[in-house]
Amino acid sequence: MIAPTALFALDTLLTDEEREIRSTVRRVCDREIRPHVAGWFEDGELPARELARTLGSVGVLGMHLDGYGCAGMGAVSYGLACLELEAADSGLRSLVSVQGSLAMYAIWKYGSEEQKQEWLPAMAAGERIGCFGLTEPDFGSDPGGMRATAKREGGDWVLNGTKMWITNGSVSDVAVVWARTDEGVRGFLVPAGAPGFTVNDVKHKISLRASVTSELVLDGVRLPGEAMLPGARGLSGPLGCLNEARFGIVFGSMGAALDCLETAIAYAGDREVFARPLASFQLTQEKLADMALELGKGLLLAVHLGRLKEAGTITPEQVSAGKLNNVREALEIARKCRTLLGASGVTLEYPVIRHSVNLESVLTYEGTSEIHALVLGKALTGIGAFS
Ligand SMILES: Cc1cc2nc3c(=O)[nH]c(=O)nc-3n(C[C@H](O)[C@H](O)[C@H](O)COP(=O)(O)OP(=O)(O)OC[C@H]3O[C@@H](n4cnc5c(N)ncnc54)[C@H](O)[C@@H]3O)c2cc1C
């Protein structure tokens, strides 16, 4: 028997350091997350503050950024960390993606020196948590329609509006909020507890239950002039951050798929049907072979995109291709693995149904599969079909 990843000799594409980082994150997940995550999912709770400190102590938060307490690792190392986190649960990877690739990246890329000094070292250590407010109740795929506003009043900014579906919202110390100004969309750092700023958790989610999702309400929130991110102008600001987070999902989704496939292979070996192991039936083997192929292709694509990112040549369209393919295939793998587990597959005793319902959110956030298809369609034809 060989591991699904060994079929493609994936490790030959990785450096010793990358393999070591993968093992470290896997060990943390085995020790701190796997024993508890089904319970967190069932209860719809996440000890986000504790986890952020644990993940900060191993250098995972903002690990692909340089300076300000960040580890300055390469894109493939970051991707492998996302893979291991999402093999535990997509909610964990979401916490890390939003912290590192959305909130910290926005400050790192577009912030003033004072903003970087104030937030990044504490966020890298997991002592402070951030969230990223772009989506609104009426504007998800089309953030350009946003209604949130920031108006100048003397030297201050006054923010009004509502952001919806915001990961880490109620556990955050700072929200990166995107709002319309007279000079186009700008980003603002809104500290938790600012007068007029309230946060309400989204209840009754059936997906990503081990993740905090919130509504942010800004009702005349007055911020000093220096709360604005000086380096981000227009929608390219938030879209640049989303591109970072999407890259992590290219790897992360394959982590969820790998965990499902490993679970299904073990189950099929143990489970007897018609007096033989389930694994010995040709239909089972065809399912396993098909899934191993899609997993292997997705991992090869992820590593290839990681190398392009490290070389500084990756394009947003390439990231869209990776996100669209790998999340779609991970969801298919999770569903197929679920069938192999029969009735056991619908319980939280096994991780498969949890990954499957989690991946429904992953398919939707950071650009839906339809939007990424349209990005590729535009690249292939030169014709935009978004509106
Ligand atoms: C668990 C979770 C966490 C999230 N975390 C965050 C976060 O931290 N920060 C944040 O800002 N947002 C976050 N989001 C929001 C997420 O990014 C949006 O849900 C997503 O962009 C889709 O927007 P929508 O839900 O409004 O769907 P809509 O935009 O209303 O789309 C509905 C459907 O229409 C399709 N569609 C839209 N436009 C077109 C078109 N032109 N052609 C064809 N089909 C189209 C979509 O693909 C989709 O199938 C999160 C969402 C979830 C579920």
TrEMBL record:
Coiled coil location: none
MF terms (GO), sorted A to Z: fatty-acyl-CoA binding; flavin adenine dinucleotide binding; glutaryl-CoA dehydrogenase activity
Family: Belongs to the acyl-CoA dehydrogenase family.
Pfam family name, one: Acyl-CoA_dh_1
Statement: the UniProt record of this protein carries the keyword Transport: no
PANTHER family: GLUTARYL-COA DEHYDROGENASE, MITOCHONDRIAL (PTHR42807:SF1)
Name assigned to this protein: Acyl-CoA dehydrogenase
Domain Acyl-CoA dehydrogenase/oxidase C-terminal: 233-380
Record-linked SUPFAM superfamilies: Acyl-CoA dehydrogenase C-terminal domain-like, Acyl-CoA dehydrogenase NM domain-like
Cofactor(s) the protein needs: FAD
GO biological process, one term: fatty-acyl-CoA biosynthetic process
InterPro entries attached to this UniProt entry: Acyl-CoA_Oxase/DH_mid-dom (IPR006091), Acyl-CoA_Oxase/DH_mid-dom_sf (IPR046373), AcylCo_DH-like_C (IPR036250), AcylCo_DH/oxidase_C (IPR009075), AcylCoA_DH/ox_N (IPR013786), AcylCoA_DH/ox_N_sf (IPR037069), AcylCoA_DH/oxidase_NM_dom_sf (IPR009100), Glutaryl-CoA_DH_mitochondrial (IPR052033)
